[in-house]
Design brief:
Blueprint (H helix, E strand, L loop, with lengths): L7 H11 L28 H13 L7 E2 L12 H7 L2 H4 L11 H18 L3 E2 L6 H16 L3 E5 L4 H12 L8 E4 L9 H9 L15 E7 L10 H10 L3 E6 L18 E5 L15 E5 L10 E7 L5 E8 L19 H38 L4 E2 L9 E6 L4 H10 L2 E2 L2 E2 L10 E5 L6 H13 L1
Parallel strand pairs: 1-13, 3-4, 3-5, 5-6, 6-7
Antiparallel strand pairs: 2-8, 7-8, 9-10, 11-12, 12-15, 14-15
Helix pairs in contact: 3-10, 5-10, 6-7, 8-9, 10-12
Length: about 450
């Protein structure tokens, strides 16, 4: 049989060796009533019939017919078939941890190229060999900032992705001091982080619960989205100035890496640690994973960077080679003293990311970003002209923006459009009650003008 490796003769030989007459005799000591009963399965199908059956089941999801504008941290960009074909090379899809550099040069070089691309993307000096996702990367960045500054308090933007905020809070609750030590800055009417709120928290003003703490000299970092969860592009230079004046670091989290095709990289604007999600440049959206966390920082902080770092060197013959330069893993048995206990890097998805970015090149990357921006601006204009809807925030955006119903909740509208085969956006009311009339719309280069018009017309008729 195709999936059973042992022949009848091999099974017979094994039974004879252990002195048992049949496979059933192996289970004789188990009472009959306790043995597993044969599963009531339908007759087996041939491989072509099975594939047709699975395709029919998949078609019930309507994935290929549905027009999607979902985003909120996971984006539907074009990933060419060439990426998957290159991933199928056996050197990559069977590779694991490159402990032995001499037999892992292909994997190590691929990771080194990935790190180089991440540095160029963020405008940073050093990047690690990937994290699990942007959420865990954000939390690791906060822990790293606490190690660097020897401070415990954290200021997080209210416009940061709520999942990232929750993940950071969870990590902090598990830290040595056991206290969350986190405050959330307010959001302006423009949909951006309120600078006055950040400054107040850095200076240690009275918190929402009436408690006073001298945080000005205790804050390790300020964490903001770039673009933020509401689509707005933050003023990183002013945020960096506020953070640095208080002796804190600025951490940025980028859920949509295509935004960095057109906007200035956060490293050039004063960020000290940059994290992000590479899914959009690696694989199609797949809820539950996989993704790949991007992580970069300034060279002077490299000793506190989590994960691992692949470096370039030369061997005894002067030939170029690659090695694990830094590996702060649990294998070193440092337990709670370890820089990080993240287990491994998402190597295969990191490779997909590197392949896709290399295929795009700088010009292709910019062209894709221009397409996203143009489509989003066109759709914003059309929706802004509709009765019953408004664009509540005035901040500059890239490809994602918030739409608000002037009357009624977002959830029933989105459900009605989904019944028409249009996933119009993400219901923000699932994140905060005060956002129950809002939904988040994301546009990518995969959307044609006809797609954008279809959504606008559907909203108009709704």
């Amino acid at each position: 049989m195709r999936y059973l490796p042992h022949t009848d003769d091999e099974i017979r030989a094994m039974l004879e060796r252990i002195g048992v007459g049949s496979v059933d005799d192996l289970f004789a000591p188990i009472p009959e009533e306790l043995r597993a009963k044969p599963l009531q399965l339908e007759p087996a199908l041939s491989e072509p019939a099975l594939m047709a059956h699975l395709e029919a089941l998949a078609a019930k999801n309507g994935a290929t017919e549905t027009l999607s504008f979902l985003g909120a941290g996971m984006y539907d960009h074009h990933v060419p078939p060439a990426v998957d074909q290159l991933l199928l090379r056996s050197e990559f899809y069977t590779a694991y941890t490159p402990y032995q550099a001499e037999v892992s040069q292909g994997t190590l070089q691929a990771i080194f190229e990935f790190q180089t691309l991440v540095c160029q993307l963020f405008g940073m000096e050093v990047a690690n060999a990937s994290m699990y996702c942007a959420a865990s990367g954000s939390a690791e960045a906060v822990l790293m900032a606490r190690r660097v500054t020897k401070r415990g308090h954290v200021v997080v933007s209210g416009a940061l992705h709520p999942h990232y905020v929750d993940t950071i809070a969870t990590f902090l609750r598990g830290s040595d001091d056991g206290a969350p030590n986190m405050d959330v800055a307010e959001v302006t009417p423009e949909g951006l982080t309120d600078l006055a709120s950040v400054e107040k928290l850095l200076r240690g003003a009275t918190t929402a619960d009436g408690e006073k703490r001298p945080k000005g000299e205790q804050t390790a970092c300020v964490v903001v989205g770039y673009p933020n969860f509401l689509g707005g592009l933050e003023d990183l230079e002013k945020l960096a100035a506020l953070a640095h004046e208080a002796g804190a670091l600025l951490v940025t989290a980028t859920a949509e890496p295509y935004a960095l095709s057109l906007v200035r990289p956060p490293g050039e604007l004063g960020a000290d640690i940059c994290v992000g999600e590479g899914q959009a440049l690696a694989v199609p959206p797949q809820l539950g994973g996989p993704g790949v966390g991007l992580f970069a920082c300034r060279q002077k902080f490299v000793r506190q960077m989590p994960g691992r770092l692949v470096g370039q060197t030369v061997d005894q013959d002067g030939e170029r080679g690659f090695v694990l330069t830094l590996s702060t893993r649990e294998q070193h048995i440092r337990r709670e003293r370890a820089t990080s206990n993240i287990c491994t890097n998402h190597g295969l998805i990191a490779l997909a990311f590197a392949i896709r970015v290399a295929m795009l090149g700088r010009k292709g990357f910019e062209q894709a970003g221009e397409s996203c921006l143009a489509g989003a601006e066109y759709l914003k204009k059309r929706i802004g002209e509709l009765d019953g809807f408004e664009l509540p925030y005035g901040a500059t955006t890239f490809n994602e923006f918030v739409v608000r119903r002037t009357e009624g909740l977002a959830a029933p509208l989105l459900a009605a459009l989904a019944a028409q085969g249009i996933l119009a956006g993400v219901d923000l009311g699932t994140f905060r009650p005060e956002w129950e009339r809002d939904f988040l719309v994301a546009v990518t280069e995969r959307h044609s003008k006809a797609d954008l018009d279809r959504l606008a017309d559907a909203l108009a008729s709704a």
